[in-house]
């Protein structure tokens, strides 16, 4: 059996090596390292792929979130609601900008932000909601957009884990995640579903005016050379990263399909096993794992193990040569940087439980059946024995 990796970027590289090597050499030869033609070409290709009017590349996914919030003109004191169960970048930029983070609980099945909890958290100071398409599963966007509209709030989609996923609207039409809210952010960190070979990120929006504002913000607040109209930042995607992303973008649907195939095999193996709860899709058609849509692109394949010592399972898997991850082990509202006396433990029953039960298995485009069988057998054996 090949060595099992949490993420297999070397294996993926072998499939695109020629194109990647050639285009990196071309960028080096052209010396157009920043804002070169490769960045513009990638931007246009991603706009077309997503079906969104504007993609604004930037330096990483955390910057993308921050710049989206700056572009919307959010001001200190404004409250921004986001999920308690996610990567810290989301809450970090809210706090950095002097905005007030308001963390709310998530849904136990989808792991995404809980709509009732969002509604309860809305106050006259609330300005925006940040849903995260966590682990690659589209959040409940229609209901969220309705709620936002009712209360005149912005919706900023954190699509760092969801690129390529589709959301099916109530009327049956589909949109790619990251194109539904007022603005969205994504990350091209190497291990994301569309990753470059360094850092990278982008902001998406269908709003022309907001896109214009954001294009200035990423470039020191300049709309005309050396005229600084607003306080901006320096946040750029470089040409070498853009050219890697151009090589990968045509394969993104194939990469996501490979992840979904691996996920289906995992789920089939775990079916009926007591104490294991497998991840699920978001639409009515896919109580199991959706064959018919792309609502889940499995950035992570995350199990809940109940009545089981999750940490002992993780240790056992590692001992058997199976890498795994715990995303995330601590609710954000309990992180030292974000504790706030306004939070009430009784408001976070789901996150407080999930952090004890979740475990993410190896998930990438190169998993083979032998590896998947070994992983699932090892997990099942442990869970049944304890
Ligand atoms: C990775 C990630 C980010 C941050 O992206 P970087 O490119 O690492 O800055 C933000 N939000 C979520 C949900 C992520 O998974």
- List segments where confidence is low: pLDDT < 50 over at least 5 consecutive residues: none
Under CATH, the homologous superfamily of the largest domain reads: Type I PLP-dependent aspartate aminotransferase-like (Major domain)
Radius of gyration: 21 Å
Number of structurally distinct domains: 2
Number of strands: 14
Tell me the fraction of residues in β-strands, as a range: 5-15%
Q: What CATH first level of the largest domain would be assigned?
A: Alpha Beta
Span between termini: 27 Å
Structural class: alpha/beta
Shape: globular
**Which fold name corresponds to the CATH topology of the largest domain?**
Aspartate Aminotransferase, domain 2
Residues in helix, %: 25-40%
User: What's the arrangement of strands in the largest beta sheet?
Assistant: 1-9-8-5-4-2-3
Strand count, sense and closure of the main sheet? 7 strands, mixed
Bound ligand species = pyridoxal-5'-phosphate
User: How many H/I helical runs?
Assistant: 12
| Order of helix and strand elements from N to C terminus | HHEHEHEHEHEEEEEHEEHHEEHHEH
Outline the structure in words:
The active site is at 192 (proton acceptor). By secondary structure, the protein is an alpha/beta fold. The protein has two domains: 9-250, Aspartate Aminotransferase, domain 2 (3-Layer(aba) Sandwich); 251-383, Aspartate Aminotransferase, domain 1 (Alpha-Beta Complex), CATH 3.90.1150. The protein is built from twelve helices and 14 strands. The protein has helices at residues 9-30, 37-50, 61-71, 89-96, 115-121, 141-151, 208-217, 239-248, 252-270, 310-319, 349-357, 369-385, and strands at 54-58, 79-83, 100-104, 126-130, 154-158, 166-168, 174-176, 183-187, 201-205, 222-224, 227-228, 276-277, 301-305, 358-361. The two termini are 27 Å apart. The model has no long low-confidence stretch (mean pLDDT 95). Residues 60-62, 86-87, 89-90, 132, 158, 160-161, 187, 189, 199, 201 line the site of pyridoxal-5'-phosphate (PLP).
């Amino acid at each position: 059996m090949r060595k099992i990796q949490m993420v297999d970027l070397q294996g993926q590289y072998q499939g695109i090596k020629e194109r990647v090597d050639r285009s990196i050499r071309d960028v080096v030869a052209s010396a157009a390292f920043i804002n070169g033609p490769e960045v513009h070409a990638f931007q246009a290709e991603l706009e077309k792929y997503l079906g969104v009017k504007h993609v604004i590349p930037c330096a990483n996914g955390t910057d993308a979130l921050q710049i989206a919030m700056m572009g919307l003109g959010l001001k200190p004191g404004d409250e921004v609601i986001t999920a308690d169960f996610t990567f810290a970048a989301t809450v970090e930029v809210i706090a950095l900008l002097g905005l007030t983070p308001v963390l709310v609980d998530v849904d136990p099945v989808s792991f995404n932000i809980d709509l009732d909890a969002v509604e309860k958290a809305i106050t006259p100071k609330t300005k925006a909601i940040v849903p995260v398409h966590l682990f690659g599963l589209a959040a409940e966007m229609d209901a969220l957009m309705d709620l936002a509209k009712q209360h005149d709030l912005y919706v900023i989609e954190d699509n760092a884990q969801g690129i390529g996923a589709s959301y099916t609207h109530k009327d049956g039409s589909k949109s790619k995640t990251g194109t539904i809210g007022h603005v969205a952010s994504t990350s091209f960190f190497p291990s994301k579903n569309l990753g470059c070979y360094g850092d990278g990120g982008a902001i998406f929006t269908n709003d022309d005016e907001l896109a214009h504002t954001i294009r200035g913000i990423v470039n020191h607040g300049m709309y005309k050379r050396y005229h600084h109209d607003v306080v901006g930042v320096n946040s750029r995607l470089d040409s070498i990263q853009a050219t890697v992303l151009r090589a990968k973008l045509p394969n993104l649907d194939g990469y996501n399909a490979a992840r979904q195939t691996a996920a289906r095999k995992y789920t089939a193996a775990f079916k009926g096993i007591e104490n294991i709860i497998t991840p699920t899709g978001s639409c009515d058609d896919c109580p199991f794992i959706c064959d018919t849509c792309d609502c889940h692109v499995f950035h992570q394949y995350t199990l809940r193990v109940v009545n089981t010592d999750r940490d002992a399972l993780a240790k056992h898997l590692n001992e058997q040569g199976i890498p795994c991850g715990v995303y995330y082990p601590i609710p954000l509202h309990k992180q030292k940087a974000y504790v706030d006396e306004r939070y009430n433990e009784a408001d976070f029953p789901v996150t407080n439980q999930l952090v004890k039960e979740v475990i993410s298995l190896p998930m990438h485009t190169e998993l083979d059946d032998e590896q998947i069988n070994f992983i699932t057998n090892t997990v099942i054996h442990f869970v049944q024995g304890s």
